[in-house]
Amino acid sequence: MRVWARYRSFERPTRLLLLNQLTINLGFYMLIPYLADHLSAGLGLSVLMVGVVLGVRNFSQQGMFLVGGSLADRFGYKPMIVAGCALRTVGFVLIGLVDAVPALVIASAMTGFAGALFNPAVRAYIAHDAGERRVEAFALFSVFYQAGILIGPVAGMLLTGINFTATCLVAAAVFAVLTVLQIRALPGRQGSGGNSREDGRSVLAQWRDVATTRGFVPFAVAMIGTYVLSYQIYLALPLYTRSLLGGGDSATMLVTAVYVVSGGVTIAAQMRVTAWCRDRWGAAASLSRGLFVLGAAFVPMLVADCLPALDDGTTVVVGIIALLSTAAMLAVGTAIVLPFEMDTIVGLSGNRLVATHYGFYNTVCGIGILLGNAGTGWAMDLARSAGAAAVPWAVLVATGVVCAVALMALHRRGLLTVTPEKTPRPTETDAPTVSFEAINRFAAADTAPTQPLPMASASASASASRSRTR
């Protein structure tokens, strides 16, 4: 009821975008968790070709976020949101109907670029429309995001039981409905400076402006740890589950339980966690302490792998407790960080080229996710073969500590503090401007600056790990 009341308290565009995000994740996770299995088992593609198709989708999204953000600032947020949903509609239809590799690659690229179009635009639109309530709006965004991730795979599992084409067409229909809904009901919006073409500079000049924004790139680099750590729920934890239970239905059920715990904690606790952190810690302290929590989330796994040899039954029980504890702590850490992270990006941007800043930020973090996941998978294989299974968990704990300390240092140097701007609230017909609230609401005592169901194969699990950003 508290979430519903908060949701109702926002204006119609923000409410629509929150509902859209739930539906976007519903449609996306209805299909994507089962795509790798369809390509390999259903179409008989080699593991190499499955990797190519999925890799193209990930690159088309992660590598194009900056382009999508720039287009949103140049042409407005609504056109990019509509275009992204329409493009994903076509891509999902093609995935369900074609079986030739070139066509599948094109369809996969379309679905990825669609995410690059609407992701920065949605976040910039919410930041624009929520004004001084940005932190609260992004907390709600996290709740709706996770709800879509929880519901989508269940719907997809039921539809895939009929056939995969039915899953693709229903997912495409979801995005088609979203496209029409947003054309009819979503007001047009642009950033507070209006159309980014008005400043007369080229896109490359605007990118240079973003890259040289005071404190922005160091902040993005420090925040890579947030994604590397939180994304281990899709990579390291499922891998640990398979090593613990040896695969099969029991391992599948345990991975499902991990995802349910993660999503359930986020949905149940997000609003309370955000309000508590905002009132007691402030933005910068919440970011650094949230990263400490994300790092500490792997302590149960570290302890489980450091214990002396136990009988098989006790080892399994300890491992299950460690897994679920880590999943819950990762959810809490993400709930602490995410609203203030999104708000800080707007603050550092000076409320200019907001979508471009989001796109740049997501591109930097996407590179970090790719390198972090590759490194984590390699380290886990190497550590287990060397009889040092606890080492990767220790490295992940250290990653959280290092990134938290880096954020503290940025705050102490004043790189995360911006000057408040007071501008009129927007109307649906006026050239939109928003009140800009700085992220300097720190406590006086402060001196320191969402999931698919388990995959049928390791490749499917790895593909899902890179798709969270939509």
What are the SSEs and their pairings?
Elements lengths: L1 H8 L2 H20 L3 H8 L4 H16 L2 H11 L1 H21 L3 H30 L3 H27 L3 H22 L17 H9 L4 H15 L5 H10 L2 H33 L2 H14 L2 H8 L5 H38 L4 H32 L5 H22 L45 H8 L5
Helix pairs in contact: 2-7, 2-8, 2-9, 4-7, 5-6, 5-7, 5-17, 6-7, 6-9, 7-17, 8-13, 8-16, 11-16, 11-17, 11-18, 12-13, 12-16, 13-16, 14-16, 14-18, 15-16, 16-17
Structure explained in plain terms:
The chain is mainly α and 470 residues long. The protein is 75% helix and 0% strand. The chain contains 19 helices and no strands. Helix 4 (47-62) packs parallel to helix 7 (101-130), helix 11 (216-230) crosses helix 17 and helix 11 runs antiparallel to helix 18. It is globular and about 65 Å long. The protein starts with a helix and ends in a 5-residue tail after the last helix. 56% of the residues are buried. Residues 419-470 have low confidence and may be disordered.
Head-to-tail CA distance between termini: 27 Å
**SSE pattern, N- to C-terminal:** HHHHHHHHHHHHHHHHHHH
The total count of strands amounts to 0
Strand content: under 5%
**Which class best fits the helix and strand makeup?**
mainly alpha
Discrete helix count: 19
The proportion of residues forming helix, as a percent range, comes to over 70%
Describe the global form: globular
Mean pLDDT, as a whole number?
Answer: 82
What are the segments in which pLDDT stays under 50 over at least 5 consecutive residues?
419-470
User: What is the CA-atom radius of gyration, in angstroms?
Assistant: 21 Å
How many strands, which pairing sense, and closed or not: the largest β-sheet?
Answer: none
